[in-house]
Amino acid sequence: MPYLLELLLFLAPFAAYGLWRKLNPNTEPSTVLLVLAGIGVALMLAGAVWFGLSRSGPPGTTYVPAHLEGDRVEPGHAEPRR
């Protein structure tokens, strides 16, 4: 069921564009809309790069994923390389 919701959320913008094209067959997207879409894509990419760089571990460390030690979960953490 969650996959169906994800698929619908992914397809919604394409369906909206298709509906817009069907209702307005002789018009093209305005320049303002295209510029705003380009700015949105650039902001999304910049945010993804910033998030990746700000959440990375310090140089010279290796990520150790969460694991079980006995009956408790040891959270993931960064350790110096060996």
Characterize the structure shown:
The chain has 82 residues and is α+β, with helices and mostly antiparallel strands. The protein has a domain at 28-55. Helix content is 56%, strand content 17%. It has helices at residues 2-23, 31-54; strands at residues 61-64, 67-69, 72-74, 77-80. The protein has a two-stranded antiparallel sheet. Strand 2 and strand 3 form a beta hairpin. The longest helix is centred in the middle third of the chain and has 24 residues, at 31-54. It is elongated and about 65 Å long. The mean pLDDT is 92.
Structure summarized in a few sentences:
The protein is an alpha+beta fold and 82 residues long.
Strand content range: 15-25%
Structural category = alpha+beta
Largest sheet: 2 strands, antiparallel
What is the CA-atom radius of gyration, in angstroms? Answer: 22 Å
Q: What is the number of strand segments?
A: 4
Termini, distance in Å? 44 Å
- Helix fraction bin: 55-70%
The strand line-up of the biggest sheet is 1-4
| Helix count from the secondary structure assignment | 2
Q: Can you tell me the residue ranges where pLDDT is under 50 for at least 5 consecutive residues?
A: none
The succession of helices and strands, N to C, reads: HHEEEE
The gross shape turns out to be: elongated
- Mean pLDDT, all residues: 92
